[in-house]
Design goal:
single chain; mainly alpha; 11 helices; 2 strands; 73% helix; disordered C terminus; membrane; transmembrane
Length: 321
Amino acid sequence: MSLAVTVCYYAAGRLGLMGRLVVEGVVVTPIWPPTGVAVAALLLLGARVWPGIALGSFLVIASLTAPGPTTVVTVVSNTVAPLCAFLLLRRAGFRRDMARLRDGLSLVFLGGFGAMLISATAGVGLQVAKGSLDKSEFWPVWLAWWVGDTMGVLLVAPLLLVLAGPAGRFRVRRWKEAAFLGLTTLVLMPMAVLSPMSMLFLVFPLLIWAALRFQLAGSMLCALFASVLTTYEATSGRGAFLHLTDVEIMAKLQAFNGSAALTALLLASVITEQRATRRSVRRACQELAEVLEHLAAGEPSPGPPGTAESRAAPPGGHRDP
């Protein structure tokens, strides 16, 4: 299992490095998928796969530069941050199906915003300690690093958890709607991102549609596609990011990715919770209707063995009048 986690972590790291930006002379990634892979792996497989995360982090760093003493600090921080996210989520009673709003909020504030402070602070603090980064540049680089790690958790981890869960029923008409949503997304999103008039807001109706109709699976796929496409355009300096400085590109991109991830994740969690509550109420009403039918017919209400009526009967199976 750890070896599979290592391979997935390294592959996600190489993909994440394709969309890197330079902030104050330091290379950062607006979305760092390995953090999402690590958190999802820990939630699905348990804490025993942490060596796979550490090895994957080491291999990603080794692919960029020659390993040195500082590599140990970076590997440890990249391993400890997902572990802390896992422990915090488990303590908060997080459910992997994310069928409650509290699960979405826990992933955002504990697994994302909270735990990723560790990797960002250690990584940027190390740059300052080495002297490769001035103290005045700490906060801009720290913010970019922290948001990149957090976006990896918020965009990648929920999608992996949903894909690893049981598949639900999908009617033919839902396939048609899903195909129409996918086609609309493929046409409208590039238009919104590539337009120099900054029309990124056109993405959010698609996110809402996906969340309302397809919950986490649809909304997170839509949000991830939008974020990846927007990140690619931002690194190219085209479309809505034309004629912007590196800092302005990072600020605008972080604001969009964060808004898209939070909209998709929290709205889908609310819809999933409401649907689960509605199903529970419907089952309760059906059970109550069955009980009332038996009472109206003069029959004892159905109940599991060991109820008050079955205990009241004597061993011979007859009741006293």
